[in-house]
Design brief:
Length: about 120
């Protein structure tokens, strides 16, 4: 008989022989251990963890150039035709940072249809 320590809960448990060597003390700890391993593999591959998803799910939505009514008619609005991504090209076109968030109170808004290029 061998005594081992469960890597999940830390409780000592006995196994009959090395041939029947279990790693976990119970089926619950085994399931939790496999979940931890899967989470670790997922994070090593660059995927977001469930904790990260929960953290971002509670945050309020940030307004983007696609959401803003004023941005729809601004000369600095640019739309990527391939991805459909809508952005503010003020920095690219003027060489100066916009200095404000995308909102109805943007200080750089200039009405027009097409961006100045």
């Amino acid at each position: 008989m061998n005594t081992k320590t469960c890597p999940v809960c830390g409780k000592p448990f006995t196994v009959p022989s090395l041939k029947n060597a279990r790693k976990y003390c119970s089926p619950e700890c085994k399931a939790e251990g496999h979940r931890r391993q899967a989470r670790k593999r997922s994070m090593m591959q660059g995927h977001a963890s469930p904790e990260t998803w929960r953290e971002f799910a509670g945050r309020p939505k940030v307004m983007t150039a696609a959401d803003c009514k004023r941005c729809q008619t601004c000369i600095y609005r640019a739309k990527s035709h391939g991805s459909g991504l809508v952005t503010c090209d003020y920095l690219i076109l003027t060489g100066e940072p916009r200095g404000c968030d995308v909102s109805e109170t943007c200080g750089r808004y200039s009405p027009g249809k097409d961006a100045k290029r």
